[in-house]
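Good morning,

Attaching, inline, the backbone tokens for the sequence recovery test we're adding to the shared suite. The designed sequence is right after.
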């Protein structure tokens, strides 16, 4: 599979945090790993189907109801054992198979009885079918509490009857000895304890020679001896033998059951795969639910439009701090495919760029987005970003050198199927020279017919966006009266950096600001 993006872009856009968030809703380890390794792709039909699955599950959960609770264990170990001749699946593994089979039957029955059509979601279960051929053999030998039934075999019933009879006699003998000795001064205050699953009398050490039995231990101080009454020694040995026989018979029963289940290996494997697949869909639904996210609408036209876009990580943080998060409306299409965002620092330029970039990789990974349902996304074959300070100490690269290397990569790889996200475009060098080079890069990228979102303070980039027919300016609005950012994005005009106004608000002396203004006027 051709990679749509690189790891640096996914880290820049904090996509790894979204995947970590989503993975918390997965039930099985394989599903968690699958989510954490999720990467954007550009197969329209696959993505459309996967998002339809989430949408149908969302409708079931929120509108219809009645879908079985997903609760299961992965069956990878059990499936391996089923393929080994004379192998034995332990009791907990048998119970895992039973749980998965019952759950699958319930899910398939739900779809059978539903009045609605869920064809896309039902495709997850295409290789499975409802049957009691797995459940019944298990329930024949295992009871509702998850224990092997006495009636699982004739021999097991005989052994367990003997065990119960022996245990009854042991209790009777011990209680009689305890009552007798309680009338004497031989016992300590605790009177009895349990050692190696055997009830023993707690006898004062000074009297232990007066007592008939076997010493199985003593207290830490040595003041108390723990003694098994002589009358129970033979019975306990007999009980040990009976319990060994019980273990052997249980092993034989599980071996026979494993052999019977092995004939259904293919169906159990299909159950395992289907449950992990619905786990994957359910984890994405749960993420969408907590984000209040909606299904993206895919289009094959070169068009991206999103309204009320909320950066999910920022919104989660703001919600916890009781702060408002401002939704943004962003549009890219063939007539405005390069968007230049300007405005003051801390006004929201970078978060607007990151929101669109994150949404695009989420969409191309089959995830829902926290925005208005009025949204449209095309798919890009390449998505790259250059965001933040990526100075490399290891490679002895300055921030500017690193950015130049990234720009070289973008120029060589970019085409009409590319989305570039460039934050603080062109910064890192001499403002005049850096601005000139940034303008040349801008023009070169424009000629490649790419889609791009750039943030910048360079006036020449804003001016160039006005001159080029398929480029457009956008700005983060700013209240020039109280000098506060409005965190509202508007397409169609460049924004001011409000350098002097922000400086004044932050306490910089007016005399110094005035001298700076005169220098600009002089230049």
């Amino acid at each position: 599979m051709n990679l749509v993006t690189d790891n640096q872009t996914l880290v820049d856009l904090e996509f790894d945090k979204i995947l970590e968030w989503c993975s918390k809703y997965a039930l099985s380890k394989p599903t968690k790993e699958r989510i954490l390794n999720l990467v954007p792709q550009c197969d329209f039909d696959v993505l459309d189907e996967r998002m339809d699955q989430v949408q149908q599950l969302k409708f079931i959960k929120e509108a219809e109801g009645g879908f079985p609770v997903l609760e299961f264990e992965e069956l990878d170990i059990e499936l391996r054992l089923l393929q080994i001749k004379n192998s034995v699946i332990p009791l907990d593994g048998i119970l895992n198979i039973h749980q998965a089979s019952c759950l699958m039957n319930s899910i398939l029955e739900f779809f059978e009885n539903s009045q609605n059509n869920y064809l896309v979601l039902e495709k997850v279960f295409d290789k499975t079918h409802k049957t009691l051929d797995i459940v019944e053999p298990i329930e024949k030998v295992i009871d509702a509490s998850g224990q092997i039934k006495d009636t699982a075999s004739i021999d097991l019933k005989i052994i367990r009857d003997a065990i119960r009879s022996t245990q009854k006699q042991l209790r009777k003998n011990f209680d009689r000895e305890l009552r007798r000795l309680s009338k004497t001064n031989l016992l300590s205050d605790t009177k009895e304890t349990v050692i190696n699953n055997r009830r023993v009398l707690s006898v004062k050490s000074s009297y232990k020679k007066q007592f008939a039995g076997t010493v199985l231990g003593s207290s830490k101080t040595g003041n108390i001896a723990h003694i098994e009454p002589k009358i129970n020694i033979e019975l306990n040995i007999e009980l040990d033998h009976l319990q060994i026989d019980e273990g052997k018979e249980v092993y034989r029963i599980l071996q026979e059951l494993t052999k019977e289940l092995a004939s259904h290996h293919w169906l159990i494997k299909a159950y395992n795969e289907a449950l992990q697949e619905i786990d994957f869909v359910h984890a994405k639904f749960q993420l969408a639910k907590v984000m209040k996210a909606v299904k993206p609408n895919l289009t094959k036209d070169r068009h991206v439009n999103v309204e009320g876009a909320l950066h999910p990580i920022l919104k989660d943080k703001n919600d916890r701090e009781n702060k408002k998060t401002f939704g943004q409306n962003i549009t890219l299409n063939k007539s405005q495919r390069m968007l230049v965002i300007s405005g003051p620092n801390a006004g929201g330029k970078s978060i607007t760029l990151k929101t669109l970039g994150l949404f695009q990789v989420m969409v191309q990974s089959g995830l829902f987005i926290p925005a208005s349902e009025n949204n449209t996304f095309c798919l890009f074959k390449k998505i790259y970003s250059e965001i933040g300070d990526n100075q490399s100490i290891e490679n002895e690269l300055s921030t500017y050198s690193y950015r130049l290397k990234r720009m070289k990569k973008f120029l060589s790889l970019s085409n009409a199927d590319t989305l570039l996200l460039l934050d603080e475009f062109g910064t890192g060098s001499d403002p005049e020279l850096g601005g000139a080079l940034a303008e040349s890069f801008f023009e070169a990228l424009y000629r490649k017919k790419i889609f791009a979102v750039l943030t910048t303070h360079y006036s020449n980039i804003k001016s160039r966006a006005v001159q080029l027919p398929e480029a457009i300016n956008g700005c983060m609005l700013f209240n020039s009266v109280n000098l506060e950012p409005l965190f509202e994005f508007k397409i169609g005009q460049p924004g001011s950096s409000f350098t002097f106004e922000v400086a004044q608000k932050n306490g910089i002396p007016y005399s110094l600001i005035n001298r700076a203004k005169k220098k600009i006027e002089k230049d």
